[in-house]
Amino acid sequence: MSRDLPILKVDQIHELEHAVVDGVDISGHWNRMFSDRSTTALPTEAMDWITSLDGGESMRDCYQCGKCVPVCPVQHVGDYGPRKLNAKVVRGNDLIDDPDLWLCTTCGNCYRVCPKEVNPLRIMPAIREQAVLQGKVPDELSDVFRNLQKSGNPMGESPRKRIDWIAEAGVDVPIISQIGRAVDVLWYVSDYTSYHPRGKDAARAMARVMTALGIDFAILGPEERSDGDSARLAGESGLFELLAEQNIKAFQKYEFKQLVVMDPHAFNAFKNEYPRLGWEGEVLHYTQFLAPFVDKIDFQSSVDLDVTYHDPCYLGRNNGEYDAPRKLLEAIPGVRLAEMPHTKANGYCCGGGGGGMWLDGFVAEHVSERLSERRVREAVATVGMDGSGVLSVACPYEPSRFEDAVKSTGNDGRLVVRDIIELIDQAMQPPAA
Amino acid sequence: MSGEILVVVEHRDGAILDTTHELLGRASALAAQGGGATVAVLLGSGVAGLAGSLSASRVLVVEDPGLESFSPSAYQAALVPIIKERAPDLVLVANSGPGMDVAAGLSAALGLPLAAYAVDVTLEGGSPLVTCQLYAGKIQAKVRFTGGRGIVTVVAGSFAPGTGGSPAVEQVAAGASDARIRFKGLLKPEAGDVDITRESVLVSVGRGIGEQDNLELVEALAAALGGAVSSSRPIADAGWLPRTRQVGKSGLKVKPKVYIALGISGAPEHLEGMRGAELIIAVNSDARAPIFSVAHYGAVADLLDVVPALTAKLGS
Amino acid sequence: MDYVVLLKQVPDLAEELEIDADGTGLDREWMSFVASEWDEYALEEALHLRDASGGTVTCLALGVEAGAVDELLATGLARGADRVVKVGSYEQNPDSHTAAAAFASALGSVKHDLVLTGVQAIDDLDGQVGPLVATLLGHPHVSVVTHIAVAAGGSSVTVHQEYAGGVVGEFEVDLPAVLGVQTSREAPRYAPVSRVRQLMKTATIESLEAGTPGTGSGLTIESMSVPESGTTAEMITGNPGAIAERIAAILAERGITGGGAR
After folding, report:
1. What ipTM was reported for this prediction?
2. Which of A30, B180, B243, C210 is least surrounded, with the fewest CB atoms within 10 Å of its CB?
3. For residues A129 and B242, what is the distance between their CA atoms, to the nearest angstrom?
């Protein structure tokens, strides 16, 4: 599906906490209502039901201000938006049979700006769970649920193949069950980094970088199971708990000081969800872990690249880390970093979160272009106009999503996609002869 | 041991199925080696005329109105007394729907062992050795019958068909009947736009195609080659292509000049339908896909990358 | 109508299958198990039939230690079966003849009008369980079934048996009968993990004896091996562009396209 879509240019976006226009303070804070809104002219069963679900309570607080509309990534490409969902519910649609239930990627941008703190990151999984229990879940998604349950990874691949990537890493990658001692860092590699060809590139790069830095690390290997966070957000909390039980059992067998993860979704699960399930520890995204070491990295060559960084929703906006990745990028010799208009807290979702990674076929019927395609066009406009630019990422969902989008938007040759760790690894090699 | 090798004949619409000739081909070879005889059992009504074309030493024609069309219960009832009486060393049955019913039914009724999904039957050390395919073709097992006698269901295409022969034809009355399963009719699929058995170039897709949308890439390649798109079972089951495009055991058997298998793993049921193609090129992201064991050329790659590149190359 | 579905688990093919040290069986160390695909179609059909015209769905599975039979049966309940029963006790999946004898014995005390099971399984070396069970019980049986409809009156069903080329034979079958299901009208419904886990804790899984074992498959496995694969194909390597070029060249060499010899 290759189309030549125009380059996407977006004017600078200004977001202000307080704004005074023509002497009038139009900031939102003062008009937050503190009592329930009365909507009894319409049937309330759907709203009552959703707000009775654990996590669905805030749906009732929406007062249709519309601040969520321009920041919702799906709204840009489809007839959809958080406000619209609320309007549907107010009019009696419980969303269980509605395809819109599956379009939200839980990117969190609406929640960020909502003056009433309506929270789809809790509402969506609550309603989706009910849909799943009623058997109303897209086959594409339930197929992945099956794989996760059976094999602990979304591809349904053998757990033993989780360590296949080690063979070509070029450095030793210890498996913690085999070395029989405590380590400083338990490195949680994650699903796509372990199984996907582009993920394996990042895994090998990370292994080499950590080895060069003398980090004492080990991986779980075949014992590692999916973090399951996206499955949780897609309505399978039971599956999430099953996977968490398996991972926590493994974590508790070994001694380590820090848990370092490649995947922001794993970061989110381990940091924010695992404590209530019985495990708590120091969790770092790999960019957070490496940033303090940045001066110790022995860069041997300059990469000479125009690079823009895509903030992953679950590292950036939803967990507040914008700086560590940029610190790493800026330290790489030859990187010329430019920001896309949708940046940091207002980053534009790649479409993979909240189960979106496994709903592409379904979602494609409801949007004019994929979120990843729109983002790629933005990246090309930022760094790809003069030939070749780099879209740098820090989430294993992204290389495949964005590389597919580069091809399908006809931007092959203008933009390449690289995980930050790949760029670091590249610059640590001596210059090509 | 009677030294007899018995073959259950399958026929439909007045014609003997190819698989029966294949079974007779091997049966004759085994009979020659072991010093026995091949007996074909032809059940039906008004089918005696078909007996002459069977390459067996003897054909037992069992005619009865109740056997007019295939019915699992009627065939089973008629065959049990015949096999009990003749006590053949081997009973060969095709691994088709009717074959599965008949073979397993006979095994339970007569207490005769059954070896299924056979791709080879030989005589070694005086008794049958059967090579069976298991686990979607990933494992082969060589088995013997304790007691040296048994039933074998044979995968289509395993043997060369037997030729010639002027069998002795014997009419036998149906010893028993069972009308609990009654044939109502044959339903044929609507004639499709394309008869893939007549195409010389087939570009075939399997689960590796991912989404239905990706089919247009494959259509483009087929067009560039002047061929047609065919598929493995899952694609037809999903309704992405008509059933008439399905290649395999329950689909159609094809023998094109070129068969390009894209994202098809090569399960035995599919291979049955296309292994006779002159040139087989397979693209699959799994290096261990069984398709590579029948392909002439293979590439371990993502078909979604290779197909557009190939289409472009052919266009230039 | 009382529907009974015969279920089992089989080795998951996502794991590499390896031969054991004896050379006559599979190495079980890394084996993981999944529900047999065709049995899932059989269960799905049973549920649809029951939902359409009433009745009960009972799942039977052999009590096999290797694998997770309780989870298999709980999943059946999670999908909507009314009752689940474990039959006998085995270390591993027994052969089809042993399984059929056990199921036939159990069915002596489980009311059934229509027994459904997968048309085949990937490990049924000695034939398919459906026709074996049927014949032991003296019931009629049809394999490779792609369509089932209950006749008015409920004493027979109409089924389609699939042949090659998309051709289908339509049969009327007197009940009680056994059907080997090839595919279901809808994909097997998803069983949410939380529901399965809950059922594993709370549901009743009944037990039945397997009865006398019978003589087994009557087969001796002389050897098992992984067939030589990949050795016939000449493998083309390189990036997609290079692969495409080579394929185009091969097609031209063979005269399929007019590209001329490279």
Report:
1. 0.90
2. A30
3. 35
